[in-house]
């Protein structure tokens, strides 16, 4: 099925399922709180459409990359052989259940925001990915580099690719020695990192440097490496906070952490009044209040790009999904600069929840932004509701705790 038609059919199915679940739960007497209104259903449909637009782009990318790999003879050195061995092992162990090695995860975020969560879905260990940069150049590579390709993770939920970075050859990112960081776009759902017996968590990279012609393009990073599980305690465990993965031409340095007993937060921001001021540069970020030293960059804006806002006023964030320790608070903030000086900064703090949604308002001059956070627990099963099949209710139609502005 083509990506666009897949997107339309899945969104329609999701919204229909939400309505059916809500009706069934109301008839069964499971829902005491207010039901999702028609306006909320319309808004939810729009949010799901946004998520599936991104998923459709990922599917198109993987189709192009698959064709590129098939048409190329790889010169297997020792690093390439490690990747080749990983791929053979993956096919032998997982392909009968999860399909092709190149398949992108079809499980989106917000699985139990509006559905009742089964007992097997609960706060659990997840992986927070902050940044990834290219370092340790070798093989004659010199800055700047026009980079394209993919970085992704696999986890026990479905062992398919959960993409955190991708660029096609025609939309490559220019990396410099001063700014070697990849512009991350994922993960598209929480990355499970809890029990090693459920299966491995791996990181994979397939990055190339664009040359004058496709035949001259060169591999910058080609690797598949396991992420080690931590046995520490506390809301955030930084045992593997800074990890380097070296292949023959570079090292991919990833800043990450395991967030213990966490829930998934999917973030949406919409301009509801006024317009974004021109000429500003800055970031919209997310982090855990008083815990995380690092921040997840949801969007960088400025230069000639401005702020990407859709016709409906939705700010097109590069990343939307973060992990939040269940007893902690999520901070979403913006900071803007003009002529190299900080001119505005504001943040809003949300208490983590296992289901439902939270709203807040941020103000930037005459521009009013609505922040919506959709909360969900995580299931180790690809379809937790079907797998567990127990009528248990966590919070359909329930607003999550209040926010506070600092």
UniProtKB/TrEMBL annotation:
Residue spans crossing the bilayer: none
Pfam families: DUF6598 (PF20241)
Sequence ranges assigned to domain DUF6598 in this UniProt record: 126-373
Name the UniProt record assigns to this protein: DUF6598 domain-containing protein
Organism from which the protein derives: Eragrostis curvula (weeping love grass)
């Amino acid at each position: 099925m083509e990506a666009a038609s897949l997107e339309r059919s899945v969104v329609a199915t999701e919204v229909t399922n939400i309505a059916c679940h809500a009706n069934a739960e109301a008839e069964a007497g499971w829902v005491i709180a207010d039901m999702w209104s028609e306006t909320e259903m319309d808004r939810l449909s729009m949010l799901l459409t946004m998520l599936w637009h991104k998923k459709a782009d990922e599917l198109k990318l993987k189709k192009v990359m698959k064709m590129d790999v098939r048409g190329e003879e790889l010169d297997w050195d020792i690093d390439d052989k490690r990747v080749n061995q990983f791929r053979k092992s993956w096919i032998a162990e997982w392909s009968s259940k999860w399909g092709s090695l190149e398949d992108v995860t079809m499980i989106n975020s917000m699985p139990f925001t509006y559905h009742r969560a089964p007992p097997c879905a609960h706060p659990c260990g997840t992986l927070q990915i902050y940044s990834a940069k290219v370092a340790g150049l070798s093989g004659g590579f010199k800055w700047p580099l026009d980079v394209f390709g993919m970085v992704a993770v696999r986890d026990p939920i479905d062992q398919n690719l959960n993409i955190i970075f991708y660029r096609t050859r025609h939309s490559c990112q220019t990396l410099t020695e001063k700014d070697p960081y990849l512009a991350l776009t994922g993960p598209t759902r929480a990355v499970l990192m809890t029990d090693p017996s459920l299966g491995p968590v791996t990181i994979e990279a397939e990055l190339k440097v664009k040359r004058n012609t496709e035949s001259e393009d060169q591999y910058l990073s080609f690797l598949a490496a396991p992420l080690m599980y931590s046995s520490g305690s506390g809301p955030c465990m930084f045992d593997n906070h800074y990890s380097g993965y070296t292949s023959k031409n570079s090292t991919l340095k990833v800043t990450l952490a395991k967030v213990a007993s966490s829930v998934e937060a999917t973030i949406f921001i919409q301009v509801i009044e006024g317009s974004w001021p021109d000429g500003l540069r800055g970031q919209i970020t997310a982090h855990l209040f008083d815990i995380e030293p690092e921040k997840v960059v949801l969007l960088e804006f400025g230069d000639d790009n401005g702020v990407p806002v859709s016709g409906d006023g939705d700010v097109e964030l590069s990343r939307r999904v973060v992990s939040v320790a269940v007893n902690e608070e999520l901070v979403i903030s913006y900071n803007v600069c003009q002529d190299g000086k900080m001119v505005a900064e504001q943040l809003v703090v949300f208490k983590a929840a296992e289901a439902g949604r939270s709203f807040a308002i941020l103000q930037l001059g005459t521009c009013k932004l609505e922040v919506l956070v959709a909360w969900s627990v995580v299931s180790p099963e690809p379809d937790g509701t079907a797998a567990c099949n127990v009528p248990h209710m966590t919070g359909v139609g329930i607003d999550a705790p209040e926010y506070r502005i600092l």
